[in-house]
């Protein structure tokens, strides 16, 4: 699956992205999104894929739905899947979205009352090379409000790991602090947000780089996936966090890895 795909396939994917992008909604569409306490929001979903180390074709696709604001498990769907598309930077959606969309469709067929009102995706939304990442792709195809949450910086459109970026990170002192991810043209594609319950506990003074490394893990890159504003996406991410990532994504990751450990005990897993 590591072979470089033919250019005509890349061109086709680029065309599909551009077409789907025309349906993207970057704004709040639901009443609960506008409520200060998210009144009316009862179910939040999360999706993730886990792989057996050394196997980039077979994966465990996981969907969870949690109650809100309690963040207790209401539903889960866990399936082994075979991925047919290669990994290409900027085109992750074509590799991962089909199996995740199928999980949502199974839920809609069998228990529609448990469909999530918003979906957290482990990946980027409009913070993307062509402003249409996996969270946008899944959001448009499913019709659900989606939030993209990434743990690492995708360096696009002038947003790079520069001295200025590192300085901005160091100035995030407490949960809820954030700063915009601006392109060279000034467009805001997302926010780097410090998560409230994930910030490290006070420790004795330590060398700067090591201390910085611990703190950096408590911050995520949030961007719009579909049918939600950036401010609401950041605010909801904060509310859904107990540890270092929003709980819907965390639970999807934990449960998919546990499935692989149970069914493939001799294999090491990777996210």
TrEMBL record:
GO terms for molecular function: DNA binding; metal ion binding; RNA endonuclease activity producing 5'-phosphomonoesters, hydrolytic mechanism; single-stranded RNA binding. One of its GO terms (cellular component) is nucleolus. Its main location: cytoplasm. Belongs to the endonuclease V family. PANTHER family: ENDONUCLEASE V. Monomer. Interacts with PABPC1; the interaction is RNA-dependent and stimulates ENDOV activity. This is Endonuclease V. It comes from Anguilla anguilla.
């Amino acid at each position: 699956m590591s072979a470089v795909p033919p250019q005509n396939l890349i061109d086709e994917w680029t065309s599909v992205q551009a077409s789907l992008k025309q349906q993207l909604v970057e704004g709040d569409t639901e009443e609960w999104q506008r409520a200060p306490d998210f009144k009316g929001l009862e179910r939040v979903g999360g999706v993730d894929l886990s792989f057996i180390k050394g196997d980039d074709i077979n994966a465990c696709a996981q969907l969870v739905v949690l109650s809100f604001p309690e963040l207790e498990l209401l539903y889960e769907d866990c399936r082994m899947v075979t991925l047919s598309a290669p990994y290409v930077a900027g085109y992750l959606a074509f590799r991962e979205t089909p199996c995740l969309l199928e999980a949502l469709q199974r839920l809609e067929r069998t228990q529609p009352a448990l469909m999530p009102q918003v979906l957290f995706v482990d990946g980027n939304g409009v913070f993307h090379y062509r402003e249409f990442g996996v969270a946008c792709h899944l959001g448009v195809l499913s019709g659900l409000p989606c939030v993209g949450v990434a743990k690492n910086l995708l360096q696009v459109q002038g947003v790079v790991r520069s001295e200025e970026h590192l300085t901005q990170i160091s100035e995030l002192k407490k949960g809820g602090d954030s700063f915009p991810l601006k392109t060279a043209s000034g467009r805001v594609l997302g926010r780097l947000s410090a998560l409230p319950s994930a910030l490290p506990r006070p420790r004795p003074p330590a060398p700067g780089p090591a201390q910085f490394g611990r703190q950096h893990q408590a911050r995520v890159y949030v961007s719009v996936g579909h049918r939600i504003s950036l401010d609401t996406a950041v605010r909801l991410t904060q509310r859904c966090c107990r540890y270092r990532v929003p709980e819907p994504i965390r639970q999807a990751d934990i449960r998919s890895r546990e499935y692989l450990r149970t069914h493939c005990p001799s294999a090491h897993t990777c996210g």
